[in-house]
Amino acid sequence: MITALRFRRFDPGEAAALADFLAGEPWPFHAAETVQREDVLGRVAEGYYDDETYWIEIGGERAGIVRLFDLEDETPMFDLRISARHRGKGLGRAAVQWLTDRLFGEYPHVERIEGTTRQDNAAMRRVFGRCGYVKEAHYRRAWPDASGHRHDSVGYAIIRRDWQTGETTVPDFHDDQCP
Fold this sequence. Notes:
The protein is α+β, with helices and mostly antiparallel strands. It contains five helices and seven strands. Helix 1 runs antiparallel to helix 2. Residues 5-161 form the N-acetyltransferase domain. InterPro entries: Acyl_CoA_acyltransferase (IPR016181), GNAT_dom (IPR000182), Ribosomal_N-acetyltransferase (IPR051908).
């Protein structure tokens, strides 16, 4: 159980804190492993974090950030980042459970929520599974890293009906009956 966990809405006045947080360490399983402080400040000014972006705090300390986007769609997505020193403590699972409940609970038009990660991000893949998300896609060599190496990526989703019932509906991947 994580104590004193809080999701607090990001305020654009906290641009410097967000830039320091994101530029302060590498993000090994994200499209850009390193983030430049100036780029974050520019994105804040452009409204990139205006959808719904939340600090993940433990005891008042910033431990991560979650950004919910494409909120007008039936299938919103999210970006989740947990600082290195807070990884492996259940924050990812808590954040995905929180955002899933938030999106289905407060956005009646949302039918499904999607997330994508690299195939080798075992921790995030476990989080998806433990939170009721199902692997729906496997994209071969679709995720280049900073060195140019291409990784496979995998897509997960949860549908509203599964969230409501607690059941897991698995897609039929053996439907190659098409002529």
